[in-house]
């Protein structure tokens, strides 16, 4: 399809196609070589919110494919500071680019952007909404590390209320034959609307605040940061921060892997990093081949 706004814009076949194409891209990304399949193409990158992995892996992906990027990493270096509105900015960059990647703190921004330009728009995170390209690399990581997605038991842990990565991932996993557990403090449960959609799709969910109850049976512990920046009341964040801390002692003697979209604060101890459990750095690397696959597929099919 033209735009990537929500993971629900993809069918299971679309997802599997991108994962297969990512496998073909991985050797290029791993060997740090360049192909010329997007030579002459320009990706517009509008990051109104901070990012390390998403922005830089999109940039690396575009450059590995022979294309180039323009854009800004902070709204305060753009004409937004002079009062320019989002519509005008997106329209202008749409004229300069072959596709736009946008991150914004307001839910729905990517969809709105796609309504004002003709070029494809990719959602790189819209507030507490969705982060569909993160989900594709999450699925790719599961497939690469565990050899499959079907039949896994995936436990989503942490801030399930404001965490956009888990919102997209839950919808994607529902397309596969997986078991899902949602582990969060009561205040940060998965939004009712998402649980309702998943139940409607026939997925049964185990919701709990007890991480110990899912350790033995899970294949993947997908841990998330508590999203401090989304709390309307800083006091509420102070009460909940540090709700879960995954350390080596907690996971040793299990068969699971630990994933995290990163950045982490203190929810995964450094002593997990160099164990067979910690897969989050490998996961972050897969952002490059997966985004190469996405960019090729979207920009090629738009022509
Ligand atoms: N996972 C992720 O979105 O990381 P960044 O915020 O660094 O882009």
Write the layout of secondary structure elements.
Elements: H1 12-31, E1 42-47, H2 53-64, E2 68-72, H3 86-96, E3 99-104, H4 109-116, E4 121-126, H5 132-146, E5 153-157, H6 164-173, E6 179-183, H7 192-200, E7 205-208, H8 212-215, E8 220-223, H9 234-240, H10 248-251, E9 257-259, H11 280-285, H12 287-302
Parallel strand pairs: 1-2, 1-3, 3-4, 5-6, 5-8, 6-7, 8-9
The protein binds phosphoric acid mono(formamide)ester.
Strand percentage: 5-15%
- What kind of oligomer do you see? single chain
Q: Tally of extended strands?
A: 9
What is the arithmetic mean of pLDDT?
95
How would you spell out the order of helices and strands?
HEHEHEHEHEHEHEHEHHEHH
List each distinct ligand once. Answer: phosphoric acid mono(formamide)ester
Structure in a nutshell:
This protein is an alpha/beta fold and 303 residues long. 40% of the residues lie in helices and 15% in strands.
Descriptive overview:
This protein is 40% helix and 15% strand. The chain contains twelve helices and nine strands. Strand 5, helix 6 (164-173) and strand 6 form a beta-alpha-beta unit.
């Amino acid at each position: 399809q033209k735009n990537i706004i929500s993971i629900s814009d993809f069918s299971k076949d679309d997802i599997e196609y991108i994962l297969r194409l990512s496998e073909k891209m991985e050797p290029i990304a791993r060997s740090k070589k360049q192909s010329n399949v997007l030579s002459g193409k320009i990706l517009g990158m509008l990051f109104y919110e901070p990012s390390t992995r998403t922005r830089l892996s999109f940039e690396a992906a575009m450059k590995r494919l022979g294309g180039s990027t323009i854009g800004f990493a902070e709204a305060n270096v753009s004409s937004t500071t002079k009062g320019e509105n989002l519509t005008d900015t997106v329209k202008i960059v749409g004229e300069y680019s072959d596709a736009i990647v946008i991150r914004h703190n307001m839910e729905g921004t990517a969809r709105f952007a796609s309504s004002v330009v003709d070029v494809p728009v990719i959602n790189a995170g819209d507030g507490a909404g969705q982060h569909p390209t993160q989900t594709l690399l999450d699925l790719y990581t599961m497939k690469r590390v565990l050899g499959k997605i079907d039949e896994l038991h995936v436990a989503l842990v942490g801030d399930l209320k404001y965490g956009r990565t888990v919102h997209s991932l839950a919808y994607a996993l529902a397309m596969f034959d997986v078991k899902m557990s949602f582990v969060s403090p009561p205040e940060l449960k998965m939004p009712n609307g998402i649980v309702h959609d998943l139940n409607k799709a026939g997925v049964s969910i185990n919701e709990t605040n007890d991480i110990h109850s899912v350790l033995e049976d899970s294949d993947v512990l997908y841990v998330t940061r508590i999203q401090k920046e989304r709390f309307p009341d800083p006091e509420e964040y102070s009460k909940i921060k540090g709700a879960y801390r995954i350390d080596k002692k907690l996971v040793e003697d299990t068969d699971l892997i630990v994933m995290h979209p990163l950045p982490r604060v203190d929810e995964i101890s450094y002593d997990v990093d160099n164990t067979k459990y910690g897969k989050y750095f490998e996961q972050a690397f897969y952002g490059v081949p997966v985004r190469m696959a996405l960019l090729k597929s979207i920009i090629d099919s738009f022509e």
